[in-house]
Amino acid sequence: MKHFPVFLAVEGRRIVVSGGGEAALAKLRLLLKTEARITVVAATPIGEVTALAAERRLTLIKRAMEPGDAICASLFYAANDDDAEDARVTALAQADGALTNWVDNLGQSQFITPAIVDRDPVTVAIGTEGAAPVLARSIKADLEARLPRALGTLARAGKAFRGAVEALPIGRKRRAFWSEYYDSVGPETFDKAGEAGLRKSLEDLLAKHIFAKTQAGHVTFVGAGPGDPELLTIKARRALHEADVVIHDRLVTPEVLELARREALIIDAGKEGFGPSMKQT
Asked: What residue ranges define each of the domains in the chain, with the CATH number in brackets?
């Protein structure tokens, strides 16, 4: 991985775009979905950019970029469709301390913008490190079709209820609550009663989980097969995803172990001739 995927907090922070043509407008359509303060620097912006400024959705500076224009900017986009000008403004922005993206120039960019599926506050980012943007768009289209439009509404209701869920202990019980909400109770309630019914369904579900008896721990044996994670059964993948502890031998591949939860305890119990091994008692 040459690019580490992160979600950057931009609420109330500056994002500067140099350029006022179609390339800049394409970036602005995405950036304007955020709560950042957008500034566009362009000597001759097209009508759509000027209209956005008139609607006070962004700040427009009608001139070529100068030193200091990107001071305090969290991100900077060079989108002039002119290599010489994009090189000049990128150097200025980096001197101002901003992370820079040169549109359609991966080698000169300090960060890249992935394809995005927006179900605010649920956001799915798809990146191919510039190797296959058409593939990224194909995956995005597939996810757009699969993810329900109500997902964002369910997530917002869940976020507002997070404080109440602290009544459940961290770990398995809390995960079980959220799994049941997002997998069944939430979607079913939304279909029947809409957003107005979600709060009551969350309260009822929380009461159910608070008074439910704690289930005893159990062990699930999973065969890893020849090592290809795509050959695992659905039940095996689910077991790995839900496990608190995963104990494996040396024949299990890293690709299979990637399916475990990040928070799970991974224990290597494998043995190798004349090598390190775990004692058996």
From this structure: 14-113 (3.40.50.720), 166-211 (no CATH), 218-281 (3.40.1010.10)
- The b/e string for 56-79 (b: 16+ C-beta within 10 A; e otherwise) is eebebbeeebeeebbeebbbbbbb
3-class SS string, 40-78: EECCCCCHHHHHHHHCCCCEEECCCCCCCCCCCEEEEEE
User: Residue 101 and residue 120: Cα distance in Å, rounded?
Assistant: 24
37, 116, 120, 127, 214 from 74: Cα distances, Å: 10, 19, 21, 20, 46
User: Which amino acid would we find at residue 81?
Assistant: D
For residue range 153-197, list pLDDT tens digits in order: 999 999 999 999 999 988 888 988 998 999 899 999 999 999 999
Q: Which residues lie across from 245 on neighbouring strands?
A: 265
Q: Which residues are catalytic?
A: 249, 271
Q: Kind and range of the H or E element at 176? A: helix 172-180
Helix (H), strand (E) at residue 34: none
User: Can you list the positions of beta strands (E) in 103-235?
Assistant: 115-119, 122-126
Angle in degrees, CA 78, 79, 83, rounded to 5? 80
CB 93 within 8 A of CB 76: yes
**Torsions phi, psi for 95 (to 5 deg):** -65, -30
Record the pTM.
Answer: 0.72
Residue 241: closest CA among 262, 215, 214? 262
- Average pLDDT (210-231) is 85
